[in-house]
Every structure is written in structure tokens, then in C-alpha cells.
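QA checklist item 7 of 12: single-chain prediction sanity check.
[x] sequence parsed
[x] length recorded as 405
[x] structure emitted
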Amino acid sequence: MTRAARSPTGLVINHSIGWALLLGTGITLAGCETNSPAATDSSPPATVAQQSREGSRNGRQIFRFDTYGDEQFWTDTLGLNKIVEQAVDPITALSVGLKVDASVLPEGILKRVDLTSPATTVALLKLNSVVGIQATVDEQNHITRLGITCALCHSTVDNSVAPGIGRRLDGWPNGDLNVGAIVALSPAVTPAQKAVFLSWGPGKYDPRFNIDGLNTPLVIPPAYGLANVKNETYTAEGPISYWNAYVAVTQMHGHGNFVDPRLGISIIQQPDLVTSKLPALREYQHSLPVPSVAAGSFNAAMAERGKAIFNRSCASCHLGGNGTDNNSGILHAPSETGMDPGYAARTTSNAYRTTPLRGLVHHSPYFHDGSAATLADVVAHYNRVRNLGLNADQQRQLVEYLKTL
């Protein structure tokens, strides 16, 4: 069974024709062979055990470089290849949150090129250095195909060379990425759709806009620290591979299968370029640790007192110190935690899970909608909504403890 649905631009696309897939195929860039997986692979799918053994290596390739064939959407429908080639210079690209992997750049190249020229962006794509974007560049330096990967939203860089340029940090949410502004560049987008996209801002994205036409954008979540997390969605509709498949097929427009009768979605496309890669992708995500906390970044004495407050006031939901009671199947009504109910109302659960607390200091703002700018705002919110009765000193101590997670 196939289904026609709106794309993120609201355009109607027939899934029986198929969308291109999110995580990449092998691409040769004008004689420079990238380290992406091969475009075609007729070998039988690996067993789960084999995928587990090689997950860290194969899953990383998928996470970073596999587009699942989504070039059909980003190139053929949105025409972003032409826009990038003609109008997106590196300064503009960095301003909308795109990142550059410095490890593949020739030494000193940034001092020798014009960062105000779109031709430089094409050269960076040809080097396969733009995180989360795969492009085919011909001998005349025209971008003939362009697609995106998981790393676009769920990787950043350490800024070790310059802001937006450095070593990859896989699993870190790209809080600078302005997905809406990027999609709004397309001439296929109507003024009304463009207004929605431009309303999201950096670090946010609505993963259901093309499904129901509503708009309650979410903060892009981290993809690290997932090994002990049962359901990796804000509303706990499914585990990690469920969400990977949903995003790959319905959002990134990869060529594959996603079926959920609860949402009225049944997308079956052949060949399925998504499903066989989900186990390895999950293994890689499971391997990504929570970032370490820098020494001196928190007050240790206050954090120790804050831990006692946390155990008394927060640990009934954040089980095990930083986990989630959702691993036991518990969900919370928006009114119970003072959350905006708008997004939950668009889902099958109509509720929110307790979000695991992982690397908090690295990915503000907080809550599913980013409504808490700081950890102090988080503590103040729950102190009020949950009647915790914490005084100002206790709230500061709790914040110091949260910085350690």
C-alpha cells in the first residue's frame, strides 16, 4: 500500500514513485572518491549479530554519509543544488548553521579561498567536508545531485579552526542549524509555507508539519547517550529505530518503508534503502557516549548538595539519576509537568515522556519546545509546577548538580 503525503514544503508527493533516502550512497566528486557507502549494494543484508559487531564502523558511515537516496527530493523537487551553486557562499552557509569538517580540508585552504563566493561552497562540497550534506559535482563544477544525511541535524563540530569549522562531534544536536531557513530558499515553497519555515529558528524543526499541516517546532535532540533509552521520541511513540525510519522516510524523504497505522501512514517503496541499515545505525548511536563535563565548569560542593535535592525531588521520574521512567512505560500528561500540550495533541500518545538527562550543559535550550533557555529556568519551572518548595539557594544547588550529568 502506498500513500500520498505533503512534503515539508506542503507539496503533494506520491510515495509509490518514491522519495530519495536520507543517509548517503557512494558519491564520486569530480575524481575525488568520498568515503561514503557504495551507491548500489547487491549483497544480502547482514545478520543482526554481524551488524552489532561492525556497528560502530558501518553505522558511522551510514550516520555521516548515507542519504538513503533523498537526492530525489532535495535536488529534483526543491532544487537546492542550483540554489547552493549559485547563491550560497561559505559565510551564508555558516550563518544558517552548516558545519565544515576540518579533518578533510587541505592545510591552509581557508586562507587561500574566497569565503564570499558560492564557488568555494561547491569546492567544499567536492571535498565532502560539509557535515550532513552529500553532493555530486561534475567536471564543470556544477552540483548535479545534492542530498542530506543524519549528521546534518545530529552532528556539529568543535570550532577548533573557526566558528562552524572543526572536528566532527557526532550525536551532538546542531543547535545552530536553521532547517527552516534552508528549505525556505527553494522556489518550490509557497509564501505561506515559507512563513512557517522561517518561524522555526535555529536548532528547531517540526517533524509533523508535512503530515498534518500544523506547526509546533521541536528542539533538535542529542543522539548520544541512547544505550539505555527505550523510546527516543518526546512522546514515546517508538524506539530509536522507529524514529530513525520515520525521519528517514517521511522527513528526509529517503526511499524506504515506514508504516504506523496509528498515524495513518503506510509508505512502502522498493527498493527499500532504509530498513536494512537501521540496526547498524542504532548500534552506532548506542556507542556515542554522553560528553564529559569539563573540570571547573561547576561548583562541586554545591553540586553535591544539589544531588541530594535531586534524589529527593526529581529521581522518581528521572530514574537512576539521569534516566527516564518511560523505560517502564510511564507517560505524563502535559498538565502534570506544565508543558505546552500543542505538540502532544498531534501525536498518538497525547502525552510526554520523561526526557533522559544527558550532557545537559551542551544542548540548551530545554524542554521539547525550547521554552526553558537555561537550567535555572528548568529548575524554576518545576519548582513552581511541581510545588517542590525549593528556596533560591537550593535551586542554585540543583542547577550545579544538573551541570554534572
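[x] summary fact logged: The chain is about 35% helix and 10% strand.
[ ] second reviewer sign-off
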